[in-house]
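User: Here's a structure from my thesis project, written as structure tokens. My advisor, Dr. K., wants to see whether a designed sequence matches the one we expressed. Can you design one independently, without my sequence as a hint?
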């Protein structure tokens, strides 16, 4: 079967690999339909991912059709599904607390083990989610949107909270959309005019972080009190450190993105505000279901979020281009089933 392999940073290879074979007990064979290209995939291509060994087949935003299954349950051969790509041990302290998204021994498809930029993949049957009511391209967007849904749930913020989302990329937009679904008052900040225009088109208030004093702008927007909830989805350590100053007294900061750098902040300012600092990693089954329901209900503009498409065969060229040229790019999706 055909697969896209990142052999080392900046080197993508479209090559033949052995088919996975029949699924063992508790596993299923999925014929891939679509795969979303994530910021994680660009980081792998660029050699910036902290948890990766090469070579690697990327791809963790997955939709497809069951080709074979060796597990009891309601999902059958021929059914359209999406895949929860977080493979958890079910035994560690996090898993025992119902947090498999931060399992001690987690393996993420496309990161810790080979992913879905290929024609077929074996996955645990328990990680399959029926794509009922979704198109297969919509199903391939559920995972990245679940990151945002999970971050909003982690914030514990309620209706009416003034919320700032820093970073108007796919993850940040997902956070903003689910914060709005949670009836929060949402402002999006970025330094990219094109992405800010997209956020404004979705009905969000925006702040251009490249102009003037951000602290002064935020003071003007919030009657000098700051935002109740601040999400940073930039993947930029300087932005993450600056964001502490935007949080109101008694407020919450949620770090959605992950960087390799250390993050430092003023302890007196942190304590003075009695802030909560929350990390948000991956997503849970509940978040996936929340996203599926929200797409079905027409609350997520998937047709506007998916701005770029390619085939598996053309993906080595296109990923290399999109890693550098992001004008107009929100979410790119590989049509694997249509790659022949």
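Assistant: Designed independently from the structure alone:
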């Amino acid at each position: 079967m055909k697969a896209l392999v990142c052999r080392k940073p900046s080197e993508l290879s479209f090559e033949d690999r052995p088919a996975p074979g029949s699924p063992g007990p508790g596993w299923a064979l999925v014929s891939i339909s679509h795969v979303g290209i994530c910021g994680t995939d660009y980081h792998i291509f660029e050699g910036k991912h902290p948890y990766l060994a090469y070579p690697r087949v990327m791809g963790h935003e997955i939709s497809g059709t069951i080709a074979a299954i060796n597990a009891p349950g309601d999902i059958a051969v021929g059914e359209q599904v999406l895949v929860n790509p977080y493979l958890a041990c079910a035994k560690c302290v996090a898993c025992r607390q119902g947090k498999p998204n931060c399992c001690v021994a987690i393996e993420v498809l496309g990161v810790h083990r080979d992913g879905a930029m290929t024609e077929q993949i074996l996955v645990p049957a328990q990680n399959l989610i029926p794509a009922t009511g979704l198109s297969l391209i919509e199903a391939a967007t559920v995972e990245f949107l679940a990151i945002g849904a999970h971050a909003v749930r982690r914030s514990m913020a309620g209706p009416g909270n003034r919320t700032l989302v820093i970073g108007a990329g796919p993850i940040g937009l997902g956070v903003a959309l689910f914060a709005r679904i949670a009836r929060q008052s949402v402002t999006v900040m970025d330094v990219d005019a094109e992405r800010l225009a997209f956020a404004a088109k979705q009905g969000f208030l925006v702040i251009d972080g490249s102009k003037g004093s951000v602290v002064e702008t935020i003071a003007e927007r919030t009657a000098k009190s700051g935002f109740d909830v601040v999400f940073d989805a930039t993947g930029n350590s300087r932005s993450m450190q600056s964001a502490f100053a935007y949080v109101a007294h008694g407020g919450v900061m949620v770090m959605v993105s992950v960087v390799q750098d250390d993050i430092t902040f003023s302890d007196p300012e942190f304590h003075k505000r009695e802030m909560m600092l929350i990390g948000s990693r991956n997503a849970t089954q509940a978040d996936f279901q929340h996203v599926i329901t929200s797409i079905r209900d027409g609350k997520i503009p998937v047709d506007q979020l998916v701005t770029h498409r390619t085939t598996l065969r053309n993906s080595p060229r296109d990923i290399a281009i999109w890693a550098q040229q992001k004008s107009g790019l929100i979410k790119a999706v590989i049509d694997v089933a249509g790659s022949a």
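When you compare it with your expressed construct, this may help: The longest helix spans residues 142-155.
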